[in-house]
Every structure is written in C-alpha cells, then in structure tokens.
C-alpha cells in the first residue's frame, strides 16, 4: 500500500464554522444587525476582531493578478504582530488558503472559495496563502497592522501542494 501523503488539496465553500480556528468570515448573509441612516442602511456590526501587538490599523488597496485552478501552492505566510483582513472590492469569489500551526511550521493546508459578499480576517499568527483572486480585477481593501518591524514570516514547502 502506498502511504505517501496526497499533495492535492480540495477547495471547499467558505463557512464561518470551517474557518473559525483561522479567523473570521465577514458575510452579509441574512438580516443586518442594525438599521441606521433613517432606515436606509443595514449594518452588519463588528464582524471581525482586529488584533495587533503594537502599531495601528491601516487600510491599503491591493491589486492582485487572478489565478487559475489548479494552482501550485509553494509557500504560505503569517503575520505574528497582527491580524490581516482581505475585503474584495468586487463580487467575484477568491481563494483562501490556510494551514494549522504545527510547532512553528504550517501543517497540511486547507483551501476555501468565498461566496459573493464574503471577506476574511486572519487571526494574528495564522499561516495563510497570499491574496488569490480567481477573476479580474483582483482589487481588495486590506486591513492590517501598520508599524515597526517586518511582521512577516514565510514558509516555503519542500514540495508544492496542488490546490483545486
């Protein structure tokens, strides 16, 4: 019997339950928590916890090249000093890759596809893939820590994983 670990990762729909140990899913599914602005605006309130060791929260705009599935996952990264939130600026789905921490290195990755209206906030220190849109324009607002220090650790796999 071949006991090698499969290097293929299936892509699952993104749900709050499946993603909970890695971060928050921001979603506009269902009714808003509050109605504001003279009844003209629904507010989905406090959907993610920003977590920084120091520094401050900042909002940057990223334009990422769309990717095709299947793709080779060669590396993941994490941010030890702060959470990081990816908010798409179009209704197109994007790919979210995460991995559990196993003694300071990433374990077997998992992959999720977002639905329209979903964004993700990675907990501080969560191993994750880079921003991976599946369609143009690949434009995202990213909320993360702005401050001194690198706040970035990369892990390059000895052998790439195949996602999708």
From TrEMBL:
Check the record and name the Gene3D superfamilies matching this protein. Answer: Ureidoglycolate hydrolase
| Any GO MF annotation of the entry | ureidoglycolate hydrolase activity
UniProt cross-references to InterPro entries, sorted A to Z: RmlC_Cupin_sf, UAH_cupin, Ureidogly_lyase, Ureidoglycolate_lyase_dom_sf
- Give the UniProt record's GO annotations in the biological process aspect: allantoin catabolic process; purine nucleobase metabolic process
Q: What is its EC number?
A: 3.5.1.116
Q: What class of enzyme is it?
A: hydrolase
Q: Which reaction does it catalyse?
A: (S)-ureidoglycolate = urea + glyoxylate
What domain of life does the native source organism fall in? Bacteria
What UniProt keywords apply to this chain's record, in alphabetical order?
Answer: Hydrolase, Lyase, Purine metabolism
Q: Which CDD domains match?
A: cupin_UAH (cd20298)
Its quaternary organisation is: Homodimer.
The UniProt entry, under NCBIfam families, shows:
PRK03606.2-3 (NF002952), PRK13395.1 (NF009932)
What protein name does the entry list? Answer: Ureidoglycolate hydrolase
**The species this protein was found in:** Wenxinia marina DSM 24838
């Amino acid at each position: 019997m071949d006991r090698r670990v499969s290097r293929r990762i299936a892509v699952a729909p993104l749900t709050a339950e499946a993603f909970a140990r890695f971060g928050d899913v921001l979603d506009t599914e269902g009714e808003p928590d509050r109605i504001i602005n003279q009844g003209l605006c629904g507010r989905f309130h406090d959907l993610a916890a920003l977590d920084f060791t120091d520094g401050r929260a900042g909002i940057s705009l990223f334009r990422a090249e769309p990717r095709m599935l299947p793709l080779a996952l060669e590396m993941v990264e994490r941010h030890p000093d702060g959470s990081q939130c990816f908010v798409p600026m179009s209704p197109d789905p994007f790919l979210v890759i995460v991995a559990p921490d196993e003694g300071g290195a990433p374990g077997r990755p998992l992959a999720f596809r977002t639905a329209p209206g979903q964004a993700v906030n990675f907990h501080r220190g969560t191993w994750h893939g880079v921003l991976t849109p599946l369609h143009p324009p690949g434009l995202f607002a990213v909320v993360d820590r702005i401050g001194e220090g690198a706040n970035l650790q990369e892990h390059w796999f000895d052998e790439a994983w195949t996602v999708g």
